Amino acid sequence: MTADGSWRTYEGEAFPPVLTAALSAFVDQGYHGTSVREIASRAGLSVPGLYHHYPSKQAMLVGITSSAMAELLDRSSRAESEAGPAPADRFDAVVESLLLFHVHRRDVAFVCSTEIRSLDPAEREAYVGQRDAQQRMLDRIVLDGVDAGVFGTAHPLDASRAVTTMCVGVATWYRPGGRLDPAALVDVYSELARGTVQATARP
Amino acid sequence: MTADGSWRTYEGEAFPPVLTAALSAFVDQGYHGTSVREIASRAGLSVPGLYHHYPSKQAMLVGITSSAMAELLDRSSRAESEAGPAPADRFDAVVESLLLFHVHRRDVAFVCSTEIRSLDPAEREAYVGQRDAQQRMLDRIVLDGVDAGVFGTAHPLDASRAVTTMCVGVATWYRPGGRLDPAALVDVYSELARGTVQATARP
């Protein structure tokens, strides 16, 4: 059980210390440019000590990408459920969830978008499956909105992907203390996302 | 002088062979994960032979990112000029230019979006300046469209950035031979982009 609205709350670290160390190294130098020794050093561990937590650099990358996508899916699913049945409300909720995740998990989002290439094939397939599940959640909402006559786009699946892309892209430029705080960002991007699906005016 | 519409034409390679070799290695392994020896091998050169062309791996990365952004700016400027004065026409032309570039220069776009971190500070500043110039081109168009009453968005600069993001994002999933050929992609994304700025219906 989780409290209503808890999908909006981001507190503390996303990961245990070892994965946080791996994440920062991957952000700075890329997966292939990062040695296990470098990660151990950032985590304040010896190399054998690091291997006690994760058997390989690949396992650390998988730990980051798979738990990030699981978290995003979980938050977005709860956002959609709490929004009730109306497509416009579900759309706003999932867009907000995508935005908040990419505001608060910027480094994770960068590694997910840049290092899919570095996942072993089976892990890559699993990751793409999670990513597709997230996209299909929004796809269904946009299709429902078109069916209900509240979204006017002639290209619902392309619009759904474009909305995801603009929300994910926030991770590349958003900085705390900048022009928009997270609530203002959500207001602005909700309007842009509604425009992209050609939503009719809300009552 | 260039012929009208030539900003739409992509023929041949974007780069000389050495930069093409560096690009493919950076795409596969990242900048920090790529050795000069690896690039030389892909280019069919010895390491000293490679250094005859470029003095460092950094110079190769700069060669890729700076010429890519210069090409994008040049094509987009010509697209806007040829479109005439109407903001809606200029908007469609620059959106088309962004889309075609990111369809035809997918690998370059990936390296530009992932390896800004790997540019030396002065080079990074120069790159960000080019990228900002591209963004300001679209910003001016969207602001002109709002002034002219043809775009209804209350957030023109955010809308302009979101449109750029959705066009740039095409590079991450577009594949030749897929559901949309470049012309169809331009049709679909032009509609999505107009929705994002809340363009009034075209006559």
TrEMBL record, chains A, B:
The UniProt entry, under InterPro entries, shows: Homeodomain-like_sf (IPR009057), HTH-type_TetR-like_transc_reg (IPR050109), HTH_TetR (IPR001647), KstR2_TetR_C (IPR041490), Tet_transcr_reg_TetR-rel_C_sf (IPR036271)
Identify the residues that the record assigns to the HTH tetR-type domain, covering every copy: 12-72
SUPFAM superfamilies per the UniProt record, alphabetical: Homeodomain-like, Tetracyclin repressor-like, C-terminal domain
Tell me any Pfam family this protein matches: TetR_C_24
Location of the DNA-binding region in this protein:
35-54
UniProt keywords, alphabetically: DNA-binding
Q: Any idea what this protein is called? A: TetR/AcrR family transcriptional regulator
**What organism does this protein naturally occur in?**
Rhodococcoides kroppenstedtii
Q: What is the lineage of its organism?
A: Bacteria, Bacillati, Actinomycetota, Actinomycetes, Mycobacteriales
